[in-house]
């Protein structure tokens, strides 16, 4: 009997150790700073015009790239990036800058990000990492400028249409003010980026009539997560603005770019094997046109399934976005099939086609648009805006719906919105493995490897001045 008990205890011990090891493998983080808990922060800033380029620097601001990276030792902050580094602009050399980029604002900004990344880099396994990225984007598009390609192809200027633009210069870069992180009262770390697109404005005199953005980061030393507090305000001149906090690839292309980038994802997550954990507290929603993304994931692969290689004529940016603003309607409907993906895949891998009006979950989709360079599209179809990325793009925009419950996503309007702050653990890998993305018939399915995971809002051509405010913390990408 005693021998049997010893054997049973031994067996239980082996099982517990095995489960412990298995759990250890389940909770590998893909980001360099899991849960945003590292006192020595790494955060950077990037601003883009409508087609994810720079075009022209704002006067006196340098290239629109900046970073705040430091280590904390014995109550002393050791900053890795100087304000002179942050003010570097076209014409000013820095280590590693190729000769051909010194006078080109687009190439200069891409190289400056790599340089700032080298100053901020943290050695780690399996790869070093650099920073969380604050991304700001101006939705104005001067169609007479010829600055933005059409699905990757250079096109001549054309007449204004549906894109906002107050006239010459509407695609400008913003003013950037940086408050370097400092230690306050011996126990609180705080810093910020803020500014406006209105180049002649003084934000100290009030925000009436002007655009504004701000990200403040704060943390108690040795405790908890960094809290990133965001604010974004549109204006009559700048009615379409975007502000996100991103975890991007540490090397290679991040979602939406055709330049080598730097970021926080030391391991690139691949569907279906990852989850995202994050705490979100929305203070103000940004009005009815605010497409607030609980999560936005971005990647790039060609229509034949091959990975992207920088050829903007054949690369395609792919996005999936969950919009939690309850004012956002489902454009996908039985009478709007062109706004729906051709089919929906359930958690048990059943396909429901969009013309199956009894079963297709129309309310789960705000909008689907196909890549403009795809050759075998199933009609009716809506193609994505061909100008707002350097290459063609495909977007799947989701809405809270009971069909997403198994993945931990919002199931009803209002979930996660103003007054409903919560920590989410989202099975992003599982859901993204079942979303429809276009691919040429007969080709090998693309590996869905995501190079950007971000959160924030896109206030989409507001009719009045709108303000969005939200706090984000505990951000982590967990490999399962």
Fill in the keyword field for this structure.
480 residues; mainly beta; ten-stranded mixed β-sheet; eight-stranded antiparallel β-sheet; 20 strands; 10% helix; disordered N terminus
Give an overview of the whole structure:
The chain has 480 residues and is mainly beta. Helix content is 10%, strand content 31%. It has 4 helices and 20 strands. The radius of gyration is 23 Å and the shape is globular. The model is unreliable at 1-25 (pLDDT under 50).
SSE topology sketch:
Layout: H1 2-26, E1 28-29, E2 42-48, E3 65-73, E4 76-79, H2 83-86, H3 105-120, E5 132-138, E6 177-184, E7 188-195, E8 212-220, E9 223-233, E10 241-248, E11 274-285, E12 290-300, E13 316-323, E14 343-345, E15 351-353, E16 365-369, E17 392-398, E18 422-426, H4 428-432, E19 452-459, E20 467-479
Q: Note poorly predicted spans.
A: 1-25
H and E string: HEEEEHHEEEEEEEEEEEEEEHEE
How far from one another are the termini? 41 Å
Q: Count up the helices.
A: 4
- Mean pLDDT comes to 94
What structural category arises from helix and sheet content? mainly beta
Number of strands: 20
- Strand order, main sheet: write it out: 4-3-2-5-10-19-12-13-17-16
Specify Rg, calculated over alpha carbons.
23 Å
Helix proportion range:
10-25%
The portion of residues forming beta strands comes to 25-35%
Looking at the structure, what is the overall shape? globular
Organism: Manihot esculenta (Cassava)
Protein name: Glutaredoxin domain-containing protein
Pfam families: Glutaredoxin, GRXCR1-2_C
InterPro entries: Glutaredoxin, Thioredoxin-like_sf
């Amino acid at each position: 009997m005693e021998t049997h008990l010893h054997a049973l205890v031994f067996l239980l011990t082996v099982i517990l150790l095995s489960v412990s090891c298995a759990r250890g493998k389940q909770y590998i983080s893909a980001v360099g700073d899991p849960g945003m808990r590292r006192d020595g922060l790494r955060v950077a800033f990037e601003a883009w015009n409508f087609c994810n380029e720079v075009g022209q620097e704002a006067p006196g601001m340098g290239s629109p790239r900046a970073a705040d990276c430091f280590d904390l030792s014995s109550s002393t902050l050791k900053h890795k990036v100087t304000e002179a580094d942050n003010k570097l602009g076209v014409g000013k050399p820095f280590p590693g800058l190729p000769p051909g980029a010194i006078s080109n604002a687009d190439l200069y900004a891409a190289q400056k990000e790599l340089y700032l990344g080298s100053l901020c880099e943290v050695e780690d396994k399996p790869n070093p990492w650099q920073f969380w990225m604050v991304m700001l984007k101006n939705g104005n598009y001067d169609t007479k400028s010829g600055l933005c390609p059409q699905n990757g192809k250079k096109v001549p200027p054309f007449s204004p249409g549906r894109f906002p633009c107050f006239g010459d210069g509407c695609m400008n870069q913003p003013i950037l003010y940086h408050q370097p992180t400092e230690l306050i009262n011996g126990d609180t770390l705080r810093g910020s980026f803020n500014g406006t697109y209105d180049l002649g404005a003084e934000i100290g005199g009030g925000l009436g009539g002007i655009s504004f953005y701000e990200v403040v980061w704060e943390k108690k030393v040795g405790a908890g997560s960094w809290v990133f507090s965001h604010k974004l305000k549109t204006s009559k001149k700048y009615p379409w603005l975007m502000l996100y906090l991103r975890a991007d690839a540490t090397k290679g292309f991040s979602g939406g770019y055709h330049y080598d980038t730097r970021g926080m994802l030391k391991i690139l997550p691949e569907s279906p094997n990852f989850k995202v954990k994050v705490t979100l507290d929305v203070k103000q929603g940004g009005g009815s046109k605010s497409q607030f993304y609980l999560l936005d994931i971005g990647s790039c692969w060609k229509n034949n399934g091959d990975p992207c290689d920088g050829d903007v004529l054949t690369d395609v940016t792919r996005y999936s976005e969950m919009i939690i603003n309850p004012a956002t309607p489902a454009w996908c409907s039985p009478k709007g099939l062109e706004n729906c993906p051709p089919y929906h895949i359930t958690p048990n891998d059943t396909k429901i086609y969009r013309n199956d009006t009894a079963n297709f979950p129309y309310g789960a989709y705000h909008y689907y648009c196909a890549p403009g360079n795809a050759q075998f599209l199933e009609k009716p179809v809506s193609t994505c805006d061909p100008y707002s990325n350097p290459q063609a793009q495909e977007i799947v925009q989701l809405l809270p719906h009971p069909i997403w419950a198994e993945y931990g996503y919002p199931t009803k309007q209002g979930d996660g919105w103003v007054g409903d702050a919560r920590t989410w653990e989202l099975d992003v890998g599982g859901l993204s493995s079942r979303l429809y993305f276009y691919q040429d018939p007969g080709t090998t399915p693309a590996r869905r490897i995501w190079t950007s995971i971000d959160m924030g809002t896109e206030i989409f051509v507001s009719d009045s001045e709108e303000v969005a405010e939200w706090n984000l913390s505990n951000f982590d990408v967990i490999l399962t």
